[in-house]
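[09:14] KT: can someone run the structure on this one? pasting the chain below
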Amino acid sequence: MTVEDCYQLGYIVKPHGLKGEVQILLDVDDPRQYQGLESVFVLEGQNLVPFFLESISVNSNKAIVKFEEVDDIEAAQELKGLELYMPLDTLPELDEQEIYLHELEGFEINDQTEGHIGRVVGVIDAGGQRLLSLLHESGKEVLIPFNDQLVVNFDKSTKSVLMNLPEGLLGLYLNES
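[09:31] RB: done, structure tokens below
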């Protein structure tokens, strides 16, 4: 199993209590879907290591987790800050009008006014706002907000998104002044 075969579920925030429990942040749309989680992969260095859960209690986007064989605060402290992953094939199926953010890489972005803008090279979660990092035809990086208000249509089959970007946004990146 490699990181490319997975999506990031979240990360371990800190130890919780004295018996090896940890607090995790779930960076997912619906954390409640993970209430019955049985195992995760923890990224240790460059390796994904399977960890099995004894218990999980989800509250909002955080959870308290007890991993098997992590039985004291010292062992829990060693896990602080490590990223948690799940295999891509465990993602719930979406309907045709929904898409996972990681699927947007490689999509072509078009604007109703400006036409073709560029190809998505990354998705950035900037504190409640999601940004698409695009490689513009000029070779410059362009960051655009990605939200329901700006997306007119997207087509999974052609890997394209039609947007209605705010006037002047592209000029911030493309004007030489």
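[09:33] KT: thanks! The longest helix spans residues 73-78.
[09:34] RB: yep, looked fine to me
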